Amino acid sequence: MSDSTRHPDSCIFCRILEGKEEGTFVYRNSKASAFLDIHPLFEGHTLVIPNDHFVDISDVSEDTLAEVMKVAQIVSNLMIKNLHAEGINIMHSTGRPAGQTILHFHVHVLPRRTGDDTEFQRWWFSRSHRASRQELSSMVAKLLP
Ligand code: AMP
Ligand code: ZN
Questions:
Q1: What CATH number did the domain enclosing 95 receive?
Q2: pLDDT at residue 3, rounded to an integer
């Protein structure tokens, strides 16, 4: 766990929480906050973050993670009800190779509508390799030595 405080000088998301940078908030409680992503992939793209500074999936505490996911559910339901989202993607990146650019734990909540981005769908459904039982067994043996 990090030191469980905000990092208002070095972290843009802590600065948004402190009101030192502009943020368009969708929801806030004592543990977690949700605000609109400045580069929306889809209309309404929202970030949910803990109010304390945690770096990534390994760093975030269990209760905070649960709170972030509760808020992600609240935001999802707002999108379904008020933005007429027909589906939701929840995405997260830990580490630079995975695409994490801001080192304050966050999940992306993406409202989806039929036909909104065929490239996005194509990417997800492009997995053509079907693993053999042998491959799956040797993988689980590595994962659970
Ligand atoms: P990730 O690549 O998963 O670390 O996502 C970081 C996200 O933060 C990106 O989608 C950015 O568009 C978003 N972002 C960066 N700066 C801001 C900001 N000042 N306000 C809102 N969203 C931001
Ligand atoms: Zn931070």
A1: 3.30.428.10
A2: 52
Evaluate whether residue 88 is within a structural domain: yes
Res 117: pLDDT: 84
Q: Which residues are catalytic?
A: 106
1: confidence class by pLDDT, cuts 50, 70, 90: very low
Q: Which ligand is nearest to the CA of 104?
A: 2
3-state DSSP of the chain: CCCCCCCCCCCHHHHHHCCCCCCCEEEECCCEEEEECCCCCCCCCEEEEECCCCCCCCCCCHHHHHHHHHHHHHHHHHHHHHCCCCEEEEECCCCHHHCCCCCCCCEEEEEECCCCCHHHHHHHCCCCCCCCHHHHHHHHHHHCC
Q: Which residue minimizes the CA distance to atom 12 of ligand 1?
A: 39
Range of the domain at 94: 12-143
pLDDT at 118: 82
Please check whether residue 5 lies inside any domain of the structure.
no
Domains identified in the chain, total number: 1
